[in-house]
Design brief:
Strand content: under 5%
Structural class: mainly alpha
Largest sheet: 2 strands, antiparallel
Strand order of the largest sheet: 1-2
Organism: Bubo bubo (Eurasian eagle-owl)
Helix content: 55-70%
Order of helices and strands: HHHHEHHEHHH
Pfam families: CLN6
Shape: elongated
Protein name: CLN6 transmembrane ER protein
Oligomer: single chain
Keywords: Membrane, Transmembrane, Transmembrane helix
GO biological process, one term: lysosome organization
């Protein structure tokens, strides 16, 4: 399954507006909307010892996203390495499910005063826990949420997108243009990838994927092949995402508190850390007036 058949070498496919639309819509609603739904819906409907509305969003995401990724692979004009795709899908579901549990608890802790712009041990509701081994348990939960869950979720996610991207080339110059529908979807799609990279703290994974895409484009260009409309949509979305990340970093470059939480060479704050640090303080100040 890993080889490209001769008969489908020059096949092309039209822009998959339906799949890209559903993909973008469910990303915004089920992924970005998860924590928002958890916060705005009354606690009486979803008690703290039960799954929140955001958890149900996450469960739906864990089912719908792999299905859409598989449909995307099926529509590729090239025969792609199916075994690698299937293993990636399995890893994706495992990682997203691990993240579901860790993220559920971490976001529910907000109602108890947990502050995402601080580390686990620096949080007021955590640092005085007795016995202190409980703090280790919360750090383990954070590890499963932010590191293991994210790695097993996002690595196969970007790998599948890249595998699909390898089949998005055509020798026909006229097919290397995007329809209006693609241009309309590019903004929401790029903005979501910005959220995914910053909140997931996966800039290195994203930038390596982007560089691999650039290298492949240059390599195929020497063969006289250009990107079709689907490839252009994905490639330009990644370019706009990079611009949005740069703007985000420059805007928060001198934030001393966020700098303390993200001390490494790559400084890319999480949107939810920014929210708990600045927006919560702003709401508190308004309420005190």
């Amino acid at each position: 399954h890993g080889t490209v058949k001769n008969e489908d070498t020059f096949k092309t496919s039209p822009f998959h507006f339906d799949l890209w639309f559903y993909f973008t819509l469910q990303n915004w609603v089920l992924d970005f909307g998860r924590p928002i739904a958890m916060i705005i819906l009354p606690l009486e409907w979803f008690p703290l010892n039960k799954p929140s509305a955001g958890d149900y969003f996450h469960m739906a995401y864990n089912v719908i996203t792999p299905f859409l990724l598989l449909k995307l692979i099926e529509r590729s004009p090239k025969t792609l390495p199916r075994s690698m795709v299937y293993v990636s899908i399995i890893m994706f579901v495992m990682g997203a499910s691990i993240h579901l549990v860790g993220d559920s608890v971490n976001h529910r802790l907000i109602f108890s005063g947990y502050q995402h712009h601080l580390s686990v041990r620096e949080n007021p509701i955590i640092k005085n826990l007795k016995p202190e081994t409980l703090i280790d348990s919360f750090e383990l939960l954070y590890y499963y949420d932010e590191y293991l869950g994210h790695s097993m979720w996002y690595i196969p996610f970007f790998l599948i997108l890249f595998i699909y991207f390898t089949g998005c080339f055509t020798p026909v110059e006229e097919e290397s243009r995007m329809p209006v529908a693609a241009l309309l979807l590019m903004g929401p799609s790029s903005l979501y990838y910005w959220y995914l990279v910053t909140e997931g703290q996966i800039f290195i994974l994203y930038i390596f994927t982007f560089f691999a895409m650039m290298a492949l484009v240059m390599h195929q260009k020497r063969k006289g092949l250009v990107l079709d409309s689907n490839g252009l949509f994905l490639f330009y979305s990644f370019i706009i995402t990079l611009v949005l990340i740069a703007v985000w970093v420059v805007w928060l470059w001198n934030d001393k508190i966020l700098r303390k939480k993200y001390p490494g060479v790559i400084y890319i704050p999480e949107p939810w850390a920014f929210y708990t640090l600045h927006m919560n303080n702003l709401h508190a100040a308004k309420e005190s007036l």
